[in-house]
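Troubleshooting log. The previous structure file for this entry was overwritten by mistake, so regenerating from the original sequence record. Sequence copied from the archived sheet and checked twice against the printout by T.R.
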Amino acid sequence: MNRKNKRWTSEEEDRLLRQIKAFPQNLHKCFVLVSDEIGRSPQAISAYWYTKLSKKPGIEYVAFGTVTPKYFSKNRKNGEGEQISNNLWRRFLNMFRNFF
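Regenerated output below.
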């Protein structure tokens, strides 16, 4: 089935979100597994995840976040972030130091 230039259905999005929830530590594996099921290439799935789906409000399947002194980005490939307070940054540093 040729899916080129076809809109994503809610069933395809749900399938991708379920797979990411199951394996949040390996998005590439999720994209490959879902590609067989929905008939889209892993590259197309990856592009859709990073450009559209991960930016939707309420999507909380964070695999990789970036924290800096000024910003927190829930998905580093989006290039967008939320400004954070110094207090939150301090708590993050303290938590990180406790692990090592």
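The two ends are 51 Å apart (CA to CA). Archived copy saved in two places this time.
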